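[09:14] KT: can someone run the structure on this one? pasting the chain below
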Amino acid sequence: MGVQSLAVACGALALCLALTTATNPGFVVRITQAGLDYAHEHGITILEKQLAQLKLPDISGDSRVLRVGKVHYELSRLRLRDFHLPYTRITPISNVGLQVSISNAFAELSGDWWVKFLFLRGHGSFNLKVENVYIKIILRLGSDTAGKPTISTSDCSARISKIRVHFSGKLGWLYNLFHSVIESRLRKILESKVCDNVAKSVQNELQTYIQTLPVTARIDAKIGLDYALVAPPKATAQSLDAGLKGEFYSLAHRSTVPFSPPPLALPPDHDRMVYFGASSYFFNTACIAYHKAGALVFEITEATIPKDVGFKLDTSVFSAFIPQLEEMYPDMPMKFRLSAPTAPFLTIGPGGISFQPVVDAQAYAILPNSSLAPLFLLSLTGNVSAAIDVRSGRIVGSLDVGRIRLSLKDSAVGTFQVRMMQSLMNVLTSSTLLPRLNARLDEGFPLPLLDRIQLSNTLVKFYENFILLGADVHFQPQA
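[09:31] RB: done, C-alpha cells below
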C-alpha cells in the first residue's frame, strides 16, 4: 500500500471512529446574547467588588533629582477607594468561550509617603487617580470528568493609559518632581494586580457558581435524571450552547438505552434569555425508566374511584356483559391491575406530543378470604396527547386520552363481547387512572438550572423530535 493510500485509509478510519463515538445530546441549553448580557451584568458587579479590594504592596526605591542627588522614597498603606467598570461587553467567541471587554474604567487610591533627600526628611499622604483603564478577559469553557461545566481565564490583559499622582505634605513638591517614575511603577503594579484579581474572581466566584449546575437529579425513590454534559459548552457568534445527556434512569438498575438521541438543532430564536431543547429521547427514557422501575403499574378498586362517579366495582355490574360471572362469583368486589407490557414510546411533532400506549388490564374477583381469583385480561389502547408547560423551574405536563379500544387477551370466565364494556372502561380510566398520572406529571421534572435562578415569561413550541422551552432569567442574590 502506497503512502497516499495509507493516509486515505487512516483518514477514513479516524472519521469512522469520530462518527461512532460522537454523542448527540438528549437535552440542549442555549444562552442567548440577552442571557449573557444579564449574567454579565451581575458578574461585573462581583468583579467590581473584587477589584475594589485590591491589595497593593508598599513601594520603595531611589531616584535622581535634578542631577543633584538621589532621593530615597517609600510609598506605604496603599488603599484602593473605588474601582468602577462603567463600559463592559461580553461576546461569545466561536470554539473558545467568552470575551469580556472593559473600557474607560477608573479607580482612586490613596496612601502615605516618606522621603529622604540629602539632609531633608519628610512624610505626607498622596492621592492617585487611574483613568482610561482597558481590560480584556478571555474565558475558556470546558467540562470535567463528572460532566459539570468548567470556566477558566485563558488570557487577560489590562492597560492603563492615564494615571495621576498628587502628593501633599512639606516635601510634596519634591515627589512631584519625579512623579513620572512613581506613576510608571504604579501603572505596572496595577495592570498586573488587575489580572491577578480577575483570575482569582473567576476561579473562586464564577467557577464555584457554575458548578452548582446539577449533573444528576433524584426525581423520586425510583427514578433519577442525568444532566451531565456530553461535550464542553460551545460558543457561536450569537449564543452559548450546552449539550446535556438528558436521560432518565432507574435508581435500582441503570442499563443502556436501546436507542440513541436524534440530532437536535435549535432554531435561531433569540427573544428569550435562555432556551431548553428537550428531545423525544429525553421523554422516552423517562418512559423506559418508569417501566423498568415497575412504576407503571396501577390498581383500581372501588376505594380508588371518586365518590361522585357513582360507580360500584363488583361482579354484579360486569355480569351484564358476562352472564357467567354472576354464577361463578356472585356479588363479589373486583379489582383491576393495570400495567404496561412494554414502555410507551412517544413522538414529538409540530402538532405536539402523542403516543398510543398499550395497557394490560387484569380483572380479579376479591374472594371472602381476600384472595384474588383471575377473571379476564383486557388489552387497552388509545390515542394519548400531552400538554407541556414550565412552572417554578420544572417541566410539567398533563395527559388527555381519546376513546379507548379494548380486546380480550385471556379469560377464566368464558368468552364475551368486550365492546360492550367500552363505556365502562372509559369511565374507569378517565376517573381513576388519568388523574393519578396527571397528578405525577403536575409535580414536574427539574430543569438544569444554576443555583438561585428563577424563570419567567416562558414559552413552549413543538418541533420535529423535540420541544423548545424558552424563558427569561432572574437571579436571586444571596441575602
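[09:33] KT: thanks! DSSP finds eight helices and 25 strands in the chain.
[09:34] RB: yep, looked fine to me
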